[in-house]
Each structure stands twice: as structure tokens, then as C-alpha cells.
Specification:
- With 161 residues, the protein is mainly alpha-helical.
- It has one domain.
- 87% of the residues lie in helices and 0% in strands.
- It has five helices and no strands.
- α1 packs across α3 and α1 runs antiparallel to α5.
- The longest helix is centred in the C-terminal third of the chain and has 37 residues.
């Protein structure tokens, strides 16, 4: 396989992965969290706690972590093969996903999910946290969505080079 072919395959895999993750996060940002916010707090909390358990499955984690791995390889490839047309877009796409999606998830969404997991949905204090959770988690999910979509666009541009 030539470097051009490897470059194309890497950009394609990363583009598809970023697009897939952007779509999942977009769904949460545009309707899942809004639907959960319309439920009584104890029901919304219980539903989100269930979602946070079910999402830890091989298909989602494979796509989420596999895309991060492809992006890490893309960053390394861009640095090593800087002279190849489109390398800058591999670098941009990889950094956008790794920082704006993967690192944001680790730094902002997962800690909120962990706090939510420790709550009893019927506890009155849980309802107060639920309102804060909905607002803060969703803001960071918007960031992840935009970053994953921008990463997909960057990889798409790399494909055209």
C-alpha cells in the first residue's frame, strides 16, 4: 500500500467515525436531553442513569475509542508526512476530535455522569442536581457535537486533497 492509499484509508475511516459520533451526540443535543428534561426529575434521572450504563457497550465504545485511535494515528501521520497534500487537514481533524470530543467527554461529561450515577432518583437533592446536570452536560455535549462534526469535515477535506 502506498502512502497515498494509506492516507486515503486513514482519512476515510476517521471521517466516517467522526461523522458517526457527531450524529450520536447531535441526537442527544437536539432531542434526547430535551425529552428527558420534560419528564419528572426522578424519571429523567433514572432514564439517564440507564442510558449511561447501556452506552458502555462494544459497538458504541468501539466507534468512540476506535475513532480516537484513528485520529491519533492521523495526527502522527500528518506530522511524519507533512509534505503530503491534505496532511494539515489530517492534523486539524485529529486534534479537533481528540481534544474537542474525546478529552471533553473525559473532563466534563463523564464526571457529571458519575455524579448522577451515585444519586437515588427519588432523593429530593437529586432533583436539584438534575436541573444542573441537564444544563451543564448538554452544553458540553454541544461542544463534542461541533468538534466531531468539524473533525469529520476536516477529514473530508483531506480526502479531497
Amino acid at each position: 500500500m502506498t502512502i497515498d492509499q494509506a492516507f486515503f484509508v486513514l482519512a476515510l475511516v476517521a471521517c466516517l467515525g467522526c461523522g458517526l459520533i457527531a450524529g450520536a451526540f447531535f441526537a442527544f443535543s437536539t432531542f434526547v436531553m430535551k425529552a428527558l428534561s420534560r419528564l419528572p426529575a426522578n424519571e429523567g434521572i433514572a432514564a439517564m442513569q440507564s442510558i449511561n450504563v447501556v452506552v458502555l457497550n462494544p459497538l458504541f465504545l468501539g466507534a468512540f475509542i476506535g475513532t480516537a485511535a484513528a485520529c491519533a494515528v492521523a495526527v502522527g501521520t500528518a506530522v511524519v508526512y507533512w509534505h503530503v497534500p491534505g496532511a494539515v487537514w489530517l492534523l486539524v481533524g485529529g486534534v479537533l476530535y481528540l481534544i474537542g470530543t474525546f478529552a471533553v467527554t473525559r473532563a466534563f461529561n463523564i464526571p457529571r455522569n458519575d455524579t448522577l450515577a451515585a444519586l437515588q432518583p427519588t432523593d429530593p437533592a437529586a432533583a436539584a442536581y438534575w436541573n444542573q446536570y441537564l444544563s451543564e452536560w448538554t452544553v458540553w455535549n454541544h461542544v463534542r457535537t461541533v468538534a466531531a462534526l468539524a473533525a469529520a469535515a476536516s477529514f473530508g477535506i483531506a480526502l479531497g486533497r
